[in-house]
Structures are given as structure tokens and as C-alpha cells.
Amino acid sequence: MKIVVLGGGLSTERAVSLVTANSVCRALRERGHQAVFVDLYFGLENYAGTPEQAFDEPDGLVVDLSIGSEAPDLAAVRASRKWKSPSRIGPGVLEICQLADCVYLGLHGVDGEDGKIQATLDLLGVPYTGSDHLSSAMAMDKAVTKRIMEANGILTPRWQDLHYTAADIPRLAETLPVPCVIKVADGGSSIGVQIADTRGDLAAALADVLPYGEHVVVEEKIVGRELTMPVLDGRCLCPIEIVPPDEKGFDYMSKYQSGGKSAREICPAPVTEAERDQLAEAALKLHRALGLSVYSRSDFMLDREGRAWCLEVNTLPGMTPTSLIPQAAAEAGIGYGELCEKIVLLSIAERTKKN
Q1: Angle at which helices 336-354 and 14-30 pack, to 10 degrees?
Q2: Residue 219 and residue 300: Cα distance in Å, rounded?
Q3: Which helix (H) or strand (E) holds 274?
Q4: Is the pLDDT score of 256 beyond 70?
Q5: CA-CA distance, 241 to 252, in Å (whole number)?
Q6: Domain closes at, from 192, 220, 248
Q7: Closest residue by Cα to residue 206 from 172, 246, 160, 178
Q8: Alpha-carbon Rg of the chain, whole angstroms?
Q9: Nearest alpha carbon to residue 216 among 185, 252, 261, 259
């Protein structure tokens, strides 16, 4: 098959997305597909050939990348694009997508998980991987997801939906409950997330989150173990436990930096059968309530009483060979390349069914 693997874009999760997309592209090419990597934002501006010729490039236009310890400078990314259009879709992207049998969405965050690119591809009649535009948009908004959880009896920490400005911070620092977790409503990869354990932490936490967005979810902090439950093809894989390096939790640096300070991931997680069943029931219930398809990954806190508190769901979770879903798939006997191909085939079937 001819497959365009989209990555990059202008999300704060750009660096993670680039590594995901290039990893997937290599894996699909090893499975015999004519896969080609395309950056959603830069498009084909640095490629001299035609969109048709790109599928025959021996390297699939893949590049070697790594994830740094800090989120990308999006202003610098914008400045480096030759094409100065305000469009967030680069030159040639839609043209090459229309030539593909499927578009693999290796995107994360804004423009990838929020339903925009899914809606665009729907209008073009191009199959793509993962959930549709409406389900993606609902899952991307943490406040909407929280309401769906509550409506479907899924245990989630107490929370409030908040829009604020810098002028509101002194008042909020005196009135919001602590300890709490502040999350930008449409963020991911732990960017735009701060934990405030004391009232003294709260003002700084609010100030740190504000550059990433004025719409946030303020959530009760649950003390316990961090776990995630992947869903693939309507079934749960094994849960994975994430052990942060310190009290800061599973932040961007601990997720992606190399060396001794990175988080540990235990796959499969050491949980009881009852705890696993609880995680699986909640993950599947949320997956279905949001109308998600093909795959997702729900994140939880398991407290000292063994209660699984659902935090959020990811519709396009990381897909590097060492990411969480590939780890869980490997435990089920599904190799990385097979997993990438399976996602493509399941997604084509899903788009065909809906059309």
C-alpha cells in the first residue's frame, strides 16, 4: 500500500510526534509498504520531486531524530518554514495524502488529536488511522472527557473547568483547593501540567501553565500509582505502571530524557486481577462512550485502597518502538511492525464501514 505517515505539525508535542512518525514509517516500509514520512507543517517544501515520486524514494523521506528534554520552540519552527502562508498544513501535504491508500496519523496534540486533520481527510475521502474527527475532538478536550466520564459512571478525581488570565492568579491562589493538578485542557505529553501540593505552590503553578493555554482543568490530586491501560481492536492489552523518578510525577522530562532520571515503565504492571479488571472496564467504557476506534490509551491513578481513578484518554498515543502501547502489544505477542500494520488495516476497515 501507499501510506503517508504524517508527523510534526505545530503542536507542543511536535518532537514526540516526529519520532513516532519516522519510527512508524520505517516499520511499515520493512513490512513492504510504500510508506513516506511527511511533516504536516513543512510539507514537501524541501523535496524536489513530485508527490507521486515520493512513494518511490528508497528512504521514504525518513530522518533520524531524538526527543530533547524540553518542548520545542514553536516560534522558531514557524520562522524556519520557507513558505510563509498562515496555513498550518504545509505545501503538498493534501496532494500527497490524496494519492495514498491510507494516512497514518503519527501526530500528537493540536492539529493531530483534536479532530482537525481527521475532518480534513474525511472531506477529501482519504482513509486515516485511529478515531474519527468528532471522537478525537471530544477526547482532546479534558473538560469534555471529564463530563463523559461522569455521565458513564467512570471514577475520576473531583475537578473544575476554568478559564483564567494572569490577573486572576492571586485570587485563584487563595481559593482553589490544594493539593491539585492543573492541566491545560487540550495539552498532552505532560506539557502544560503542574502539581500544586500547597497553597504556596499554587500561584507559581498557575503562572507556569498559562503560556500553554488559558483553559485548564483543575483536578484533585490522587496519591497512588500511575498506570495506563491500552485498548486495541476493542480489547484491552496489559496495564503498564509508570514509576516517576521523583515527586514531580511523570512530566515531559521524565518521559523523554535519557539517563538515570527518566521514569521507569513496568510492563505488565504488577496489579491484582481485580485491579486489572477495574482498569480494563473503565478504559473500555471510556473508549466506547467517546466513540473511539482502533486504539487508545487511558491513564489512571490507583490509590492505596485499590480504586482506579481515570484521568484522561489519548487517541493518538506515542508509537515509537519503546512507547507504552508497543510494549503492551509485545506482551501479547504483537511485534512493532505488525502493530503498525494492524493499526492501518483496522483503520481502513473502520473508515470503509463508516462510509
Answers
A1: 100
A2: 13
A3: helix 273-289
A4: no
A5: 16
A6: 220
A7: 172
A8: 20
A9: 185
Query: Using one digit for the tens of pLDDT, what is the confidence trace for 50-66?
Result: 999 999 999 999 988 76
Whole-angstrom Cα distance, residue 212 to residue 67? 19
Instruction: Decide the pairing of beta strands 215-220 and 159-163.
Output: antiparallel
> Hey, what's the cell of 353?
464501514
Q: 159-179, pLDDT tens digit by residue? A: 999 999 999 999 999 999 999
On whether the CB atoms of residues 295 and 316 are closer than 8 A, the answer is no
Domain count, the chain: 3
Residues linked to residue 214 through DSSP beta bridges, in sequence order: none
| CATH code for position 292 | 3.30.470.20
Residues in Cβ contact with 9 at an 8 Å cutoff, skipping those fewer than 6 apart: 17, 39, 40, 41, 88, 107, 109, 110, 111, 112
Rounded to whole angstroms, the Cα distance separating 146 from 143 reads: 5
Report whether 61 contacts 49 (CB < 8 A). no
Q: CA–CA distance from 229 to each of 209, 325, 327 (Å)? A: 26, 9, 11
Looking at the fold, whether 199 and 256 belong to one and the same domain comes out as no
Digit-coded pLDDT (tens) for 72-105: 788 999 999 999 999 999 999 999 999 999 999 9
Of 245, 230, 298, 240, nearest in space to 267 by CA: 240
CA distance 20 to 248: 25
Give the range of the structural domain holding residue 306, as residue numbers without chain letter: 140-155+224-315
